[in-house]
Automatic annotation (TrEMBL):
It is a multi-pass membrane protein. This is Na+/H+ antiporter NhaC family protein. Keywords: Cell membrane, Membrane, Transmembrane, Transmembrane helix. It is found in: Cell membrane. It comes from Siminovitchia sediminis. Residues 185-455 form the Na+/H+ antiporter NhaC-like C-terminal domain. It comes from the Bacteria.
Length: 458
């Protein structure tokens, strides 16, 4: 079905990224090295000018530009909450009801469900907001990152009014096997999105210590109890937080809850009203801050503009990382990585195994390529004919496909969801993954066996 000009070599850039990330505990450098390795495979001795060309093409791609603009705008919003003392007002309110470590994480869990419209909004807003609360109860920042990320994409796909839902509805509506009503098709698959449901259950059990803590989590909890909330290698984040704490201690601005609540409401409403356009939503929220903070005297015009610049500057490293991620995605597409893996597993698929294999293949590709939506777009026209020919429940197979995409989004250490969550909680991607991966793998295994059972009875 697909050409395989590079065969198993198409997996080499991914292998390089994973190995060097594990060795260096860093992300940007391994990603760039992986793209160079891919460029050598694609272009041979002329790889360098072509690598530069691919880099420039990536940076000019509208989808990439959109993804770079989002964290820059959220950087402005989060900085305004900090300088205006709005975050302090929210924390003081929350502390009236939250009295324990577990409840602080439960509040994060609930807030994550409320902000379901977009996983980018979830990652940046929840992490940036709730860290002020969970720090009070000595929650390790990598644990906060795990909880934040686990209520991002898993919640977004379970509610049919999110960015993921909009994408998948369009994908389903364009398929000749599914008819034109993408919304109806999507809703029918929600009961079969097993991995997101299992993830949310495991997360709730994790919050209340009803599942075993891994060695890394135990070490993180012990470290946090001694007052160090950040994992090793995050010293620059710790210094940044110390500076922020010192500023808070001399911040004489009156904490006003409306300075936090009204911009958040305008963000959510603006995003929904303008057809789930998150950029417009964030701009409206920032404009709300400008108007509100001036009207109530919280900040001067100079402070507003200086804070906006600082917020963008704080996101520069993240924006560089995003560019590296999308460049690797492009290299993988050119190498045919996804097609190679699909061709490799297609001969072993049987009607009974179709949902489970779909889950594992999409999960593997999402985890290794960071291209969740692209993977589903490629996999869909393959699994639908197989489902029809084998008389397998279509909604079940689609639910498995989406579950695999959610897993990839949840644990790909260089993926956008993990990257944005790490940025907002101020830990490295690898620190977050060391917490989340064991629980995510447990959820994937449980989901696989559930799909096997459903394949038997449906």
């Amino acid at each position: 079905m697909f050409g395989e000009p590079y065969g198993i070599l198409s997996l080499l850039p991914i292998a390089v990224v994973v190995i060097f990330a594990l060795i260096t505990k860093r992300v940007i450098e391994p990603l760039l090295l992986g793209t160079v390795v891919g460029a050598i495979l694609l272009y041979g001795l002329s790889f360098f000018p072509n690598w530069i060309g691919d880099l420039l093409d990536t940076m000019s791609d509208p989808d990439v530009v959109w993804t770079m603009v989002i964290p820059a705008l959220f950087g402005v919003l989060i900085a305004m909450f900090g300088i205006s003392n709005a975050g302090t007002a929210f924390r003081e309110l929350a502390l009236k009801y939250v009295k324990s470590r577990e409840n602080s994480l439960l509040a994060t869990y609930i807030f994550g469900i409320i902000i379901f419209m977009d996983e980018y909004m979830n990652a940046l807003l929840i992490g940036g907001t709730m860290r002020n609360l969970t720090d009070k109860f000595k929650v390790p920042r990598e644990v906060l990152a795990y909880v934040t990320n686990s209520t991002g994409t898993p919640v977004s796909v379970l509610i049919p009014f999110s960015s993921w839902a909009v994408f998948l509805m369009g994908l389903y509506g364009s398929s000749e096997f599914l008819g034109s009503n993408g919304f109806t098709t999507y809703v029918s698959t929600i009961p079969f999105m097993i991995y997101p449901m299992v993830t949310l259950i495991i997360l709730l059990l994790f919050i209340y210590n009803k599942v075993p803590m891994t060695r890394y989590v135990k070490e993180a909890v012990k470290r946090a109890e001694k007052g160090n909330l950040f994992p090793k290698g995050s010293n620059h984040f710790s210094d940044e937080i110390d500076d922020e704490v010192q500023k808070d201690q001399v911040n004489t601005k009156k904490p006003r809850l409306i300075n936090f609540v009204l911009p958040i409401i305008s963000l959510v409403i603006g995003t929904i009203v303008f057809d789930m356009d998150l950029i417009i939503g964030v701009i409206i929220a920032i404009a709300t801050c400008f108007i509100l903070y001036r009207l109530n005297g919280t900040m001067t015009y100079s402070e507003l503009f200086e804070t906006s610049i600082k917020g963008i500057q704080d996101m520069v490293e993240l924006i560089i990382l995003i560019i590296a991620i999308f460049l690797l995605v492009k290299i993988n597409e050119d190498l045919g990585t996804i097609e190679f893996v699909i061709n490799a597993v297609e001969p072993i698929i049987t009607p009974l195994l179709l949902p489970g294999i779909t889950l594992l293949v999409v999960a593997f590709l999402g985890f290794t390529t960071g291209n969740y939506w692209g993977t589903m777009g490629i996999v869909l026209p393959i699994i639908l004919p197989l489902a029809h020919a084998s008389d397998v429940n279509t909604a079940l197979v689609l639910g498995a496909m989406v579950s695999g995409g959610v897993f990839g989004s949840h644990v790909c250490f260089f993926g956008d969801s993990v990257t944005l969550t790490s940025a907002s909680t101020q830990v490295s991607n690898m620190a977050q993954i060391r917490v989340s991966l064991p629980y995510a793998l447990a959820g994937l295994i449980i989901s696989f066996f559930i799909y096997l059972g459903l394949g038997l009875i449906m």
